[in-house]
């Protein structure tokens, strides 16, 4: 048995939920001494660096004379001229960078295709939804595993455009895959409803995890005032504007801050909304480059709020619980599946109800402590070891076919 993983997600974003899953799987495969290969060297990935596997050459740094450089210079000039920049232009950052790295990516695509055609691996697990490998995969004996992390592109196509490559490719890849893994039963239900012609017996559920309990305590903490915590990107379905509205209704005498950890800096539209609600002194963006910083942001928060309208799983729920941060999340099916009775749920369309709930809860030490205790118990149901073992079982089964 030999497993091949490709490079896609590692060029898609610097560090996010999907790349986290694959990095955790790699750790466990290393521990178990299972033979596998990734098409790139990720030894510097947490610092945003990707090396070519054999030459150790840096391959994700764009040339000065590139489309991406022109794009970034253009953004800076427009900002200096105080010209309003539409959010859809700012959101193109990763796509423009990927386009500027297309030559390097094409070379990696060719290496993966060559390995597939030569039947060097029994199982291939692509890390995202481009299908450059599909013509040659059909000619080989290599089996394919595909992970479905969510169905957000299908459920909210208005946020991505009809020409989005995931919408074009997901169904084609799902038909071609020998085994499909969904990260929750909620995601599996959505997937099978949207793609009813995919046989259910082809689809398994493997839960993610999220454990930051072993990260050291930082002193001083990354943010030294009383705050509520939001983590991650703030795209439309993440429901961030709803959270701003709810937070704006909390009495100012509470002297609370809303810390937004990760994601990009506030866009002009977000900053406008923050200013319009008179929250510019209370809403703070904090970047982090390590899981240690993230763990301590959770540890020191009064509570963590996850207001999404849709998710495929919800790794931050478990990360927060693992370090004793009370979790408040929207009452969507997947959050109920993942959090069970260890979170406080709210209507993600009613900001005043959330505001009332937060004020009531912040005054109840007993309630917050109860959520902490329940969270510590709930998070024990999930582990990256279980996750990797479940994938390993699938890899073994496909290698025997």
TrEMBL record:
Q: Does the keyword Glycosyltransferase apply?
A: yes
- The UniProt record lists the Glycosyl transferase family domain at 222-371
Under Enzyme Commission nomenclature, its number is 2.4.-.-
Question: Which residues are in the Glycosyltransferase subfamily 4-like N-terminal domain?
Answer: 117-213
Q: Which CDD domains match?
A: GT4_MtfB-like
Output the Pfam families linked to this UniProt entry.
Glyco_transf_4 (PF13439), Glycos_transf_1 (PF00534)
User: Which keywords describe this protein according to UniProt?
Assistant: Glycosyltransferase, Transferase
Reply yes or no: does the keyword Transcription regulation apply. Answer: no
**InterPro entries under this entry?**
Glyco_trans_1, Glyco_trans_4-like_N
Q: Which GO terms describe its molecular function?
A: glycosyltransferase activity
Q: Where are the transmembrane segments?
A: none
This protein is called what?
Answer: Glycosyltransferase, group 1 family protein
Q: Which organism is it from?
A: Leptospira wolbachii serovar Codice str. CDC
Organism lineage string: Bacteria, Pseudomonadati, Spirochaetota, Spirochaetia, Leptospirales
């Amino acid at each position: 048995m030999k497993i091949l993983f490709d490079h896609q997600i590692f060029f898609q974003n610097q560090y996010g939920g999907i790349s986290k899953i694959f990095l955790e799987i790699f750790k466990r495969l290393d521990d178990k001494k299972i033979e596998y290969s990734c098409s790139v060297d990720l030894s510097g990935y947490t610092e945003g660096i990707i090396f070519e596997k054999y030459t150790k050459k840096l391959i994700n740094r764009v040339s000065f004379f590139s489309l991406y450089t022109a794009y970034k210079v253009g953004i800076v000039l427009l900002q200096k001229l105080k010209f309003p920049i539409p959010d859809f232009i700012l959101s193109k950052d990763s796509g423009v960078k990927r386009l500027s790295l297309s030559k390097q990516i094409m070379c990696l695509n060719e290496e993966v295709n060559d390995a597939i055609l030569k039947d060097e691996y029994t199982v291939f697990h692509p890390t995202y939804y481009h299908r450059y490998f599909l013509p040659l995969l059909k000619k080989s004996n290599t089996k394919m595993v595909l992970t479905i992390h969510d169905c957000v592109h299908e459920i909210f196509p208005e946020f991505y455009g009809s020409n989005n490559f995931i919408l074009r490719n997901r169904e084609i890849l799902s038909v071609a895959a020998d085994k499909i893994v969904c990260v929750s039963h909620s995601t599996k239900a959505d997937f099978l409803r949207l793609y009813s012609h995919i046989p259910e017996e082809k689809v398994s559920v493997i839960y993610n995890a999220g454990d930051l309990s072993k990260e050291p305590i930082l002193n001083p903490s990354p943010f030294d005032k009383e705050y509520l915590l939001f983590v991650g990107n703030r795209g439309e379905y993440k429901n961030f504007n709803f959270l701003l509205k709810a937070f704006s209704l909390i009495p100012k005498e509470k002297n609370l801050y809303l810390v937004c950890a990760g994601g990009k800096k506030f866009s002009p539209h977000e900053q406008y909304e923050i200013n319009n609600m008179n929250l510019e002194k209370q809403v703070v963006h904090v970047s982090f480059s390590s899981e240690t910083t993230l763990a301590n942001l959770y540890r020191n928060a009064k509570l963590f709020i996850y207001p999404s309208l849709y998710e495929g799983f919800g790794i931050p729920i478990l990360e927060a619980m693992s370090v004793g941060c009370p979790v408040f999340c929207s009452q969507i099916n997947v959050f109920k599946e993942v959090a069970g009775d260890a979170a406080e749920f709210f209507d993600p369309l009613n900001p005043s109800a959330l505001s009332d709930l937060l004020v009531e809860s912040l005054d109840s030490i007993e309630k917050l402590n109860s959520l902490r205790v329940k969270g510590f118990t709930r998070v024990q149901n999930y582990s990256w070891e279980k996750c990797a073992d479940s994938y390993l079982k699938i890899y073994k089964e496909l290698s025997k076919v």
